[in-house]
Design goal:
Helices cover 30% and strands 22% of the residues. The protein is of the alpha+beta class and 296 residues long. It has a five-stranded mixed beta sheet. The protein is globular.
Length: 296
């Protein structure tokens, strides 16, 4: 199932237009979670670097957007995002040209119209907030390769300036089991609000199975959370979890986004981070505001 991609080619693994509708237990290594840590940080701006890049041809349209706030906070992080993203755009462009050539050859042989439809790939990285020594970055990837519908993938991470890896949830959360309970209850409530007919207990049981840690995926929240800004200046208002279509439901359900407010997290925060949380979360919809046009 195309859903959670690691340090391999993002574009190549997303060339399938659809994935099965039945949700399976989520795995570690979300593609958009690992984009920033996939390579060592470039010391200088990569050739052609720009925060807003797009290129179109008769076979494809690609776009890469990096929030200028990321560049201002940590240029090396912005360069790393650019280098990895640009590679994916270039690979999709090659695949599109090859697909067009194959389709034209088929059309010439069969006498029928070409089956080729233009490919698109959009990658966007947005800062959801800068909190002293760390920045919260949400990631969105949208791809279309001629299938029944586009696919899009959401992710995010917290990065300390100068470090190449995103910070694990354990940096902030002292009780992962309690965090999981809060997350499942919030997601179950969101599913009910979307019209799920199942009883709350049944929804929670299903989510517990999908989000259960495994040997291959010990941290199912890796790459799926960002900080929410706070109504109290300088504080972190909560942790927002984001799940792509197919992660915890069918494509028709769409993506899921829930925010666990600071007041609920306070009892389970690590000693070092508890003082940095406070106030009410200022919600900025990752799904509605960041989803690229090709996935809408």
């Amino acid at each position: 199932m195309i859903r959670l991609l690691s340090k391999v080619s993002l574009a190549a693994l997303m060339l399938s237009a659809c994935t099965p509708e039945a949700a399976e237990p989520v795995a570690d290594g979300n593609a958009v979670a690992e984009i920033a840590s996939a390579e060592a940080a470039p010391r200088a701006a990569p050739e052609g670097f720009q925060t807003a890049y797009n290129l179109e041809s008769e076979n494809y349209a690609v776009q890469l957007d990096i929030d200028p706030a990321i560049l201002a906070f940590d240029p090396a992080l912005a360069y790393r995002l650019w280098s990895f993203g640009k590679t994916q755009l270039d690979e999709l462009a090659v695949s599109a040209d090859e697909g067009r050539k194959m389709a034209d050859e088929d059309a010439a042989t069969s006498g029928e119209d070409s089956w080729f439809m233009g490919y698109t790939l959009e990658i966007a990285h947005k800062a959801t907030g800068v909190f002293d020594d760390v920045i919260s970055v949400s990631d969105t990837v949208a791809v279309y390769t001629g299938g029944a519908h586009p696919n899009y993938f959401l992710g995010g991470g917290i990065y300390r300036k100068g470090e190449t890896e995103s910070l694990p949830l354990s940096t902030f959360i002292a009780d992962p089991a309690a965090f999981g309970e809060l997350a499942i209850k919030a997601l179950a409530m969101e599913k009910q609000q979307r019209g799920y007919a199942d009883e709350p207990a049944a929804i929670e049981a299903s989510l517990e199975e999908l989000l259960a840690p495994t040997t291959d995926a010990p941290d199912v929240y890796k790459g799926r959370f960002v900080f929410a800004p706070s109504s109290e200046p300088g504080k972190i208002g909560g942790i927002t979890l984001v799940f792509s279509p197919y992660d915890i439901g069918s494509y028709a359900e769409g993506a899921y986004e829930v925010t666990l407010p600071a007041i609920e997290l306070k009892p389970i925060l690590t000693e070092a981070w508890a003082p940095r949380f406070g106030g009410e979360p200022v919600i900025e919809e990752v799904i509605e505001e960041e989803q690229p046009a090709s996935a809408q």
